[in-house]
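job 3f2a | input accepted
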Amino acid sequence: MYKRRRRRGRQGRKPSPVFISHTSNVKEFNPQPQNENEPIHLEHEELEVLRLVDLVGLSQEEAGEEMRISRGTIWRLLQRGRKKVTQALIEGRKLVIQQHES
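job 3f2a | predicted structure (102 res):
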């Protein structure tokens, strides 16, 4: 399954689509106790990179080949995803996984 990425900013070329091989039915994680802070939104691409690199154990280069994007893009998605998950755990904020468009 391919997912179209959106451009961050106005300059540069349009990003190529990302191949995502694993989908999850999980939509969110809620901290206990609940707090009133804004939820953190984890993009589906960030979740896939976290799964491939941290759970499956692929290198960034192998994950890039699997998702059909560059290693640099994998690195950026990995950094953003790890930061969001860590922030949700430390600050006790809800983590919402954005669902992919089919």
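job 3f2a | Helices lie at 44-56, 60-67, 71-91.
job 3f2a | closed
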